Structure formats: C-alpha cells, structure tokens
C-alpha cells in the first residue's frame, strides 16, 4: 500500500529491509476522500499524520474575504502533514483536489521511530525539509519570476516529483486541477492565467488538455522556468 512513499524516500537514500518493514507495519489504516473534502482541517489537532497514496491534495488558507491561497500541492508519496506531529495544532487546511486515497501513521508510532530508528528518523525529517525547500521556490516564483516562468517552473517541478513515484506516462501526467484552482495556486486571476497559458501553448513547450499535461519541449520549458531540480534533493546518498 505504501509503495509511493517507499519510492519517494528511496530516491534520496537506501532504506533497509527493517525500515521498510516497519513503515509497512505502522501505516495500515487507509481512507478515500472525494475532491473538495478536507483531509486535515485548519485548527485541528490530529493524532496521526496523513500519507497521500494516490491523487492530488493542497495546503491552503482562506482569507477574510473568502478568497483562497493554495500554498502547496501534494502528490502520491507525500506525507501531507508530517509536521503536525511536533507542531500539534494545524494552522492551515489540506484539501483533496481530486479523489484521494490516503493512509495514516499514528503520532505514537512516529515518536517511537524517533526514539529507536535514527536513520529512518532522518529520512522522515528530510521529507519535511524538502517541503520547506519547495515552499522557498514557490515564494521566489511568486515574488520574482514572471508569470510565464512561474507556470513553467510549477510544471517542471510536478513532472519531476511525479516521475519519482511513477505517476508519469512518457512526457505526460494527470493534472486534475481546474483553471480556477490553478489560479489559486499561482495567485493570479483566471483571465491572467488563461492568457499566460495561451502564450506558453503558442511557444510549444507543453499542452494542458483533458486534465493531462504533456511536455512537448522539456529543454525549453526548463529554460523558461530557470528550473534547477537540486532543491528537491533527488539524489541517493547517505543521510
């Protein structure tokens, strides 16, 4: 059930048979969510952390005027709220952007890992550090990249992350968000988003049709985005 997590962690270091077996033993409860349903609610104090097995989910905040800002996208293999273990109270919500299949790791079991399995602890810690690195890239994109480069960067990032967990098909991947939801990710109006997407389409770097993104010119897309995947720490080395 947790193959996507094992692929995710295994892209950064080798998990021992004992570590893999232990993760399989503690992550056994699962549940399905429909699009639009909160996986984790803002203000809640979960006693478990949620692993996304399949689907897309998003961290978000709702402003006083009802507008929403999406602050992260999660794909299969991501713990969407591993940080909830030490933080305790959630200061944001996590919503299903598509049908989602999730599993849960009790915080008591995570605490036991920190007390008895130092290497696995470091691997899970790294998972939260990569989350932080992605947040930094998103902040840079919001503040300093052109909207054209911002969209291109997001497509590059998602493609690489989905490749790791075997959720791509050639140069394509399933992308269930609507343009309204994509605008919430990018902090744009739908009109501005549509104009920018049309410009990128004319450049022939990727297409987005029928909930599928297909990369047509990977080299050019990376060039537009100034994409350097090193912040994702996808390299197997001792941790």
TrEMBL record:
CDD domains for this protein: CAP_ED
Pfam family, one: HTH_Crp_2
Keywords assigned by UniProt, alphabetized: DNA-binding, Transcription, Transcription regulation
Domain of life: Bacteria
Domain HTH crp-type: residue ranges: 145-219
SMART domains to which the protein is assigned, alphabetical: HTH_CRP
Record's protein name: Crp/Fnr family transcriptional regulator
Organism listed in the record: Rhizobium aouanii
Species lineage: Bacteria, Pseudomonadati, Pseudomonadota, Alphaproteobacteria, Hyphomicrobiales
